Please model this.
Amino acid sequence: EDDDEKPRAAPQQPRESPAGPSNAPAPAVTPPPADSSPLLLGRETAPQESSDGPIRVVVAAPPAEGNPFVTALPPGNKHGVEVMSLVRGKYDLMDDVHQYRPHIVLISPSIRDYSVEIVNELARWPDYPIAVVGIVPNTGGWGSEMASNGAVAFYNTPIGPHVVEQFTREARGIVDKARTDWRAPVIAAGVA
Model:
């Protein structure tokens, strides 16, 4: 399990794959208005896909924290929020960010090689906006630490169906906030 010490070209550790349909009712989601903003310094307004397509999620967490998301939100589910992978370490996370181009990364400080710099790096991803969302314990300052480094939200453990339902309802707004924050430095610089 400690084979994550160095970056590698291909993951060597098996990952959980999303499985099984969700029986939870579909949340009412109002699609955001079409974004007609111009390109900003080469940054497209929606570089991953249109804002009404499925939201791709990569979960970086121990199984107890990540499996509720994986089970409820497999690819192709009716909610439009799809967990593409569950990883347990920093290097697998970065591999999957490149592979799946997620809109959201759910991250726990319990993953191998976690540091707040991972949150910062993902929140400031140069190629497209990534909404970083923490999965944090009720105790300690994990949530505020992640937020001060670019996380747009966090959920407290333990993770159960109610938290997954809340995340599913909030996912599109979380993605929209990350898109706005991603463009903000360019807009603030007076380039727009």
Remarks:
- Strands lie at 55-60, 81-87, 104-107, 131-136, 153-156.
- Residues 147 and 153 are 7 Å apart (CA to CA).
